[in-house]
Each structure stands twice: as structure tokens, then as C-alpha cells.
Amino acid sequence: MTTQQQTPPPPATQDSPSPTTTWHRRAVSLTVAVVLLLLGAASVWSLRTPQPKPSSASRTEFSANRALARLHGIAAVPHPAGSAASADVRAYLVRELRSLGVRPTVQTRVGSRTPSGGYPTLARVSNVYARIPGSKPTGRVLLVAHYDSVPNGPGASDDGANVAAVLEIVRALGSMPRPRNDIDVLFTDAEEPGLLGARAFVQSKVSGDPHRVAVVNLEARGVSGPALMFQMKGGLTSAVADSHAVTTSFASALYSLLPNDTDLTVLAGDGMRGINLAFMGGVARYHTAHDDIAHVNAGSVQDMGDTALAAVRSLGAADLAEDEPDGTFFSLFGKVISYPGWLTLPLALVSLGALSLVLIRGRRHGLRPSRAGLAAGSLTAVLLAAVGVGFGGWWMLSTLQPAFTFGVGAVYHPGPYLLAASFLMVAVLLLWYRWARRRMSSVEASTGVLGWFVALALISAVLLPGGAYLFTWPALIGLGAVAATLHAGRHSPLHPLATAASALPATVLLTPVSVLVTTAVGLGLGAAPLLMVTLLAATALPLVEPSPSRRVCAALGAGLLVSATAAAAVAASMNGYTDSNPRPVSLAYAWESDTGTASWLSRGGREQPVVGRLLDDGPEQLNDRIPSLAGVPLHHGRALKAPDVPEPRIRRTAPDDIDRVTGRRTVHLRLTVPDDTYLVDVFANTATHTVRGATVDGVDIDAGRTSLTKPWGWGFRYAAPSDKGMDLTIRSAGSGPLRIRAVSLTSGLPDGVHAPRLPSNASWAGWPVLSGQTIAVRTFTF
Asked: Is the Cα torsion angle 278, 279, 284, 286 positive or negative in sign?
């Protein structure tokens, strides 16, 4: 009997890791992956709102319950600027401030503003203003919230809850030692139609030297979520840090690129410094009838109050005569980290130097720069795919559900959609990594990924400095770890740690920002947070080492696709329209008295429930007929003539002044509007006349700053018009009669036209989308 001799296994070589090494690497990778998941969860958890404090809380503390007790006097019903309900709210605020021991004044004047790309907007506004004197002021802190609402909603969150929060802050300050600086309280009027209360306040010069004023502005772009400090003007980093706000200088940098404004826009334009605070969750209810008291989140109010009170106290004790340079700042597990802004570009350049060092030194240890370049170049396709999925996914969703596009997007729960897209992109990344690892080492692939972080750090440092930290710190830490371990053996367990080191800062920095950006801008700009998620996932790819086999890759990819499908299904079920989450619909009634035409107008199509049956044609633009809606594609249909549609009226109040030499003509007019009109637009036909200027209620309008197209090439808007009328003087040059068209808007649909009644699972879309208004159009010839 012979014994068969077994051949021993070959010794481990540099190209073949031993089973023990492989096991160690997998154990290390699994541990790091668990740590990253826990850090990501913790960073999202840090965005939660606190529990509201009861009315029995210490008098020096902010109590959401005490603040919300005042909300019924502020936001029980819609109260747009100029309405009787708005006057009731104003009287309530005056009484409350007096009861808190301060002396408010009501400042009434005409405010005007000409936004970039728009035409002048005016309103007679009534701001409520009060001052808490400081002990030895170096300037003043201006605490601001607007008290008007949109016409079709009570504005309980935007901005009623914040008005109530300001009252509670004033109460708390009264229980504390006297601050060093003056604390001014400003409740602005007519913020919604164009920041006109803030403009009137600036024009009044009540605040004194604007360079010694620090603004804390309270806003809302939804009904829930943490109080985000999303904008800083003029270097108030220390106050932001003292407030412990949820914040990021990336949000401030991004906001500067978006076409959005708040009262701080006007105040900062006058030279004031300031910070903008807002909660932005539940944006689907923004500017709708469902921004009501029932949907106000008490935790958000508590977070807003705590943050604003801390910021006011910090600024109240500061030397406001000293300028503080802008800085980089961000929240990290409930704390605000900051450093001087001048470090932004040098740190980005250091990351470039670190990348160069790794590429040069790495050549001695087998790192091929050409392969790292291949990794970076091929990753471009993945990042472009992320952008495509973000925009393409939104196009698909909005095509399947057009109501998502109303307002800022009626998507009640956008998170699951982003999660589904994220799973899909991780699957794409996994395929890319398998492709890359067949051509290069894990260190080379990771160096290529970090090359993208370096590039984005440099680009951001120049174009968007507040956001550069998102890419600079992962690049610095990741490249530092790679450089430190280049001498280690190819199969050392240190390599997964080194090549995935950038995932640690990327997780804690990019994860919360992705969540906040999704909340703030919705799915329409979902490509931005998806791009961040893709970059974050790319830093963690080395954790699948050793190089994934086809079987492992297929299993992981299948799991990710199943997860993406499940998340999409959850998103679809959560965003179905119900009584509690109604579907937005768009409809307005238009009466054009010149032609005797009555029409239904809508931003949506015939697929809309209830209102869709009223629409026959479109979409098309009605620029000539209704200049207020110029450039807006509208669906429309014939409507019955209402028994009585109140119309705007214009009459001549004095003979024209005519310069026989130049042919210039001055027309003196009086404009009156129906009761409950919240806005009126006035246009002049410029086909035969050139408007040289105009005066409305004593305010001059710069005729050269309009952006309308002919034939109605000049115009202005008057918000909150008085039913007593407005004086109008127009200076023009031309031949023949001067034609003027007035367009008035009132809330509600007229009686006697078979206007639809909305079911409980539908509601009017967010303002200013056509949402239950009556539009009256009339042309006058002089």
C-alpha cells in the first residue's frame, strides 16, 4: 500500500495575499464601514429639532409653548399686506410689545423696489418698530421677521411662528441683564410681494449708521426642520458659533447664486451685516393654505428661538464698531467649527501639493501616475451620470406627476427619492471600481478619486469659497494617509484604512449638507446632493477590497438595485396625495373687459382633478392680453361671465402738461381698485410712446429699469393698494393717444361662474402660482 504525497500550497507572494492577510483586510474594512455608517447616522441625527420647552420654563429661556400661545393672534387667517386682517395683526403686535415693556411705533410710508430683471414694485407699508436700549451701545442688533402672509394662506410658519418667536425673545431679554448694544425689533410689512417693508425701513434711515447694525432675520421656507443659518453677510462668524446653529458656509455661498431674497437682502444692500435663519422642512406646504397653525412644528420653533436668542445675546455683547472678516464655518455634531476665510485658498493649494507629493513619491512604491489619471478621468463619466440621474429623475417624476412642479415642488417627502437615486449611483460606482481595479491598484484608484476632491477644492476656493471645505479636508486627510502608508506592503491591512481615510471627513461633512440641500432646494436641483453622495461613496470604495470578484460585484450590485427599487416604491407611496397631503391644483378666473372675454387660466393641464375639465387649449403665452403673466405658458378655457367682476379704474385728474417743443407729455391720473385687491399692475403701450418716467404716490419710478417687452414695454406693480386710490403721473413722448392697461388680482373665484369646489385631497397650489385668484384686465386711452 502506497501513501500519496500531498503537494503543499505555494507560499504567499507579493501578488497573492495569504488567507490570513485577506481575512485581516476584510475585518478592517468591515470595521471601518460600520464606523462610517454610524458617523453618517450621527451627523443626520444632529440635524433633529429639540423638544419644545413648556410654558413653565425659566423666564430667561426661550419656550416654544409660550411663543405658540401667541400664534392665534398672528396667523389665524390669511393677512396679506394692506388687508383688514393685516391691520388686526399689526394692532395685536403693538399691544403685545407694549405689554412686554417696550414702546413700539408704526412707521407708514411708501416703499419701492426694482428687482434685477423685473419692474418696479411699490406699496404703502406699515412696519412695527421698537427699541430695547443698551447700556453702552457700540451699535445695534436688529431682530427682524415679517408679519404679512401670502394672499392664499395664513402664513403660520412663514412667518407667523417667527413673529411669535421674536415676541418670546423680547420677553426673555426683559428677564436678563441689560445688553451692551441696543436691540431693535422690526416686524416688516409687505415682504411677500417684494421686500417692500424692509425697503421702506432702509429709506427711513431710522437705524442710523448701517455699518454698525447687525441683523438677525427669521424666515421660513416650510413648516418644519432645524433652524438653518443659511446666509451670513459681513463676517459675523463668532455670533454664528455662539448660536450653535445648524449651518454651513456652503449654504451661504450657494444661496448667493440662487434667485431668492429675504428682508436681509435689502438690509445688507444698505450696508448692514447680518445672518439669515430659516427652517425649510415640509416645503410642499410653503405659500399654501396648509401653512396653518396645525402644521407648525413646535420643535422647529424651539430651535429657531434658541438659535436666534443666542445670536442676539452674542451680538448684543459684541463691539459692533469692529469689523470681523468672513470665515469658513460648519456644524459638526451640534458644534460650529470655524476658521478664517483667508485660509481657504492656501488649504486648497496644500491639497494640490499633497497630491503632487503622493504622485511623485508613490512612483518609488509602484504607484503609476498615469493609472491614477485614468481613474480620475474615468470617474468623470460616473459623476456626469450622477448629474444626469439627478436632472433626468426629476424630469421623469415631473412628467409623470406635473403637480410636482407647482411652486417650489409639491413633493411632501423628497428624501426617499434621493435615497433611491443614491443606491443606483453606488451600484454604478461599484461597476466602475471593478473596471478600474482590473487596470490599477486600489491606491491608484483612490488617488484618482482624491484628485477630483483636490480639483473641486481649488475650483470652490476661487468661485465658491464657503463650500471649499467640503472637498479640501477629505483631500488633505486622504492624501496624508496615503502618503504615510506608501512604504507598507502591497497587501498590508493599512491600505484599506489609508485609501478610505478620506471617507471619514467626507461622511461627516457631505452627509448633513446633502440632507440640508435636498430639503432646501427640493428635487428640482437634486443633482447637487446626488453628486455629493456619489463623491462620498467613491471615497469608501476601497472597503470592498480585496478587489471584488464578478460574483461579489454582481451580488452587491443586485442588492443595491433592489434597495433602489424599494426606496423608489416607498417614495411613491409616501408622496401619494391624501387629505393630509393634498394634491396642488392651479386655476384662476380672468375677465378682460375690453373684449368681454371670460377665461379659466391654469399653470397645469387637463390631467388635474376637478379643474382640468375647464381647460381646452394651451399651453401658450398670453403676453399681449395679460402682461402680468408675460412669459408664462398657460392652459386656458372659456368661462361664464360673472354677474359682477370688480375692475380697476383709471381717470384723469388734471389737464395734460404738453411741451410743444419736445412733444413730451405729462398725464395726471388716479388709479382705484376693487375692495380686497392685493395687487395691481399698470402697463403703458410703448409701441407709439416712450415713457420717460413716472411718479406713483409721490415716489419716482426709473423708466429705464423695466424689462417688459412690447407692446406693453413699461409698467409697475402696486402691492397692497388702498381702495381710496393712488395718484399716478406718467411722463411720455410720442404721437397719438397713450394706452394704459391695468390688471388687478383678488383672492377667490367669483360667484355665478360654476367655479369648482376642491375635494379634501386637493388644494390650491402655492402662491404665486395661479391658485384661486380673480384677474380683471381693463385698458384705458388718454
From this structure: negative
